[in-house]
Automatic annotation (TrEMBL):
Protein name: Imidazolonepropionase
Protein's organism: Novipirellula artificiosorum
Keywords for this protein: Signal
Keyword Signal attached: yes
Top-rank taxon: Bacteria
Length: 436
């Protein structure tokens, strides 16, 4: 007996649609350091001190143990001769969705947004893909640490500071959670808002206020009740912010939005970090008074207003430095969080700021130690300091120059594979055209 069945046209068509394959990277994570390693004869950029010419750096068991002109290594030390090379702490991308987004045009490779608009319990680090093709590319640019944040239209979720090497997301995690991310700009009025849009914004404010108050009552009840209360994951996620254990990270560019975010944080005694900060200079005194740091969302980007100078974004870091605002430089340029594929360009955003006034060593600080300070991991990374993790980049020149290549890198003393899809394609076509 032959059983006949008729499939709907759309089902039949779907059977013949084969999605484009998304391949994992082939790099094997580094093994734990087993022998001491000495980098000798390089130009060292400690960040927390003056540049050391022809210096040496020793690290053991994943930690820096000595730095200076004359370092005596223990017996059995591996020596890396680094004459005419430069050594930096691993660069830090202060906000990105690397590991959560692979190909922007392919929906199934994007895992940065959760359904709904209030998701404080979302944890970005559990969704990070250690096999992302974009991670080796970022490492090849000197970026070894990334602050991975979820996306979304309102309360986006919790972020984490991740090391860009490891078999699993758990192995890669340096600090989690590191902040609660909120798209603050969506709560601010816009000149083009309709009456309905303005009403929606007011409703968001009321919801957010009520939510914070609920979290405070929830915390008070937890502290006073002898019997355990029913757990609310969303309210639980807000408690570290209420206790000032982690900051509220708000994405906002306009002066009015920055001022309202600071006022809200002061009212509720929150720690606050501004992401974006295009008009932060206008709020410099306010930011300094309340110790609010800014993550500049890319330097090489277009002006936000039609009547702005063409170089408004390029000069922002130097203007913030002169104003005394604590800030770090990001490398994604637009969006919240922006394109993960652009993390590799982080040093060139700092270089653009140098071209428009920011001192060179200060620019390097803004993508290393300053970023670590903003994210709360300055005791582990961000500078070449004895006792900190041996998260180190060796380059054949000034890392802010586009012709410079990273020759070696270490994360907590583990040697990192610097090959990537880019280097493999380069070798492939060099061979192809070199043989003809």
């Amino acid at each position: 007996m032959i059983i006949k069945s008729v499939l709907p046209v759309w089902v039949a068509a779907a059977l013949f649609v084969v999605p484009a394959p998304v391949h994992a990277n082939d790099q094997i994570p580094g093994s734990p350091q087993t022998t001491p390693i000495l980098i000798r004869g390089a130009t060292l950029h400690p960040i927390e001190g003056d540049v050391i010419e022809r210096g040496s750096l020793l690290f053991e068991q994943g930690r820096i143990t000595a730095i200076g002109r004359h370092v005596r290594p223990p017996e059995g030390t591996e020596v890396i001769k680094a004459d005419r090379k430069h050594v930096y702490p691993g660069l830090i991308e202060p906000l990105t969705d690397i590991g959560l987004r692979e190909i922007s045009a392919v929906d199934v490779t994007i895992d940065r947004d959760e359904l709904g608009q209030r998701n404080p319990n979302v944890r970005s680090w559990v969704a990070v893909n250690p096999d992302s093709e974009l991670i080796p590319v970022a490492r090849a640019g000197g970026v070894l640490i990334a602050h991975v944040a979820p996306g979304g239209r309102f309360v986006q979720g919790q972020s984490a500071v991740m090391m860009l090497d490891g078999w699993t997301a758990a192995e890669m995690t340096l600090l989690a959670p590191s902040g609660l991310c909120v798209a603050w700009g969506t709560m601010q009025p816009n000149d083009k808002d309709s009456v309905e849009q303005a009403r929606e914004r007011d409703q968001k404010w009321r919801e957010f206020d009520e939510w914070i108050e609920q979290a405070k009552r929830y915390a008070a009840k937890q502290a006073s009740e002898s019997e355990p209360i029913a757990e609310d994951l969303r309210l639980e996620a807000l408690l570290p912010v209420l206790r000032r254990e982690m900051p509220l990270i708000v994405s906002v560019d306009r002066q009015s939005g920055i001022e309202s975010a600071v006022a809200y944080a002061v009212e509720h005694d929150f720690r606050l970090v501004i992401y974006g900060g295009y008009e932060a200079e206008a709020c410099a005194d306010l930011l300094k008074r309340h110790n609010v740091a800014v993550i500049v969302a890319g330097v090489y980007r277009l002006p936000m207003h039609r009547d702005d100078p063409y170089d408004a974004a390029y000069t922002l870091p130097e203007r913030l430095r002169r104003a005394g605002v604590h800030f770090a430089i990001g490398g994604e340029g637009s969006g919240y969080p922006g394109g993960a594929s652009n993390v590799r360009n982080l040093p060139y955003h700092a270089a653009c700021a140098v071209a428009y006034g920011l001192p060179r060593e200060d620019a390097i600080r803004r993508i290393t130690l300053s970023a670590a300070e903003v994210l709360g991991v300055e005791d582990r990374v961000g500078s070449l300091t004895v006792g900190k993790d041996a998260t180190i980049v060796i380059a054949d020149g000034d890392l802010l120059e586009t012709q410079t290549n990273v020759t070696e890198a270490f994360i907590q003393g583990r040697r990192v594979d610097l090959s990537s899809k880019h280097t493999m394609l380069f070798e492939k076509y060099k061979k192809k055209y070199g043989e003809r």
